[in-house]
Amino acid sequence: MVGVVGAIDLLPSGKATWIAATLAALYIYAGNEKGSNGRAGAAVLGALSVQSLWGPTLFSLFTVYLLRADAALVGVALKLTRGGFDWHENVISTQGFTVGIYNDCSSFHNISLAALCWISLTKLHRPTFIRSDFKFGAAACLAMIALNAARLYAISLGRESFAYWHDGAGAQIFAVTASFVIAAICAWGASIDGAKHE
User: Fold this and answer.
1) What are the sequence ranges of the domains in the chain?
2) What pTM was computed for the model?
């Protein structure tokens, strides 16, 4: 037991783990034939690496622009449906209430998680992608953006709404709903028979 715990200390941590996982995924993918389970497993390992390292790294490069886009999207929706709202940069405000949109709250934050779900469920069903798989992958990512934007809209309505959707029961309701919707889209896409929908 002590040896196992000691060996765990030797494992790389953080970024090094996901760089190694990316290299392993590329090696496994290159070493297996098209349509093999090895390539399917490599795709899932690659998706895990993207979700854990490459997605957040890429997101950080464009954070300022994505947060501004979020604020503009939600700000326009609020202005059209409720009135009295304005936005600047990544801040939405109305009569005495202001909400700042930051990285973890962005509509684009969980795209890599939606993509991981899509690749995992698809590759669990079949080792080779078919044309319709990419439509369902895009649908899962767009659904994640829409769900996160709807939550930002609700959070921006006022203090009570903020408390409910950001810190209260609404946060758990959102998490369960988003997980169900994304998993349902991905499972639906994975269940399609390639011969019928090529």
Assistant:
1) 2-197
2) 0.83
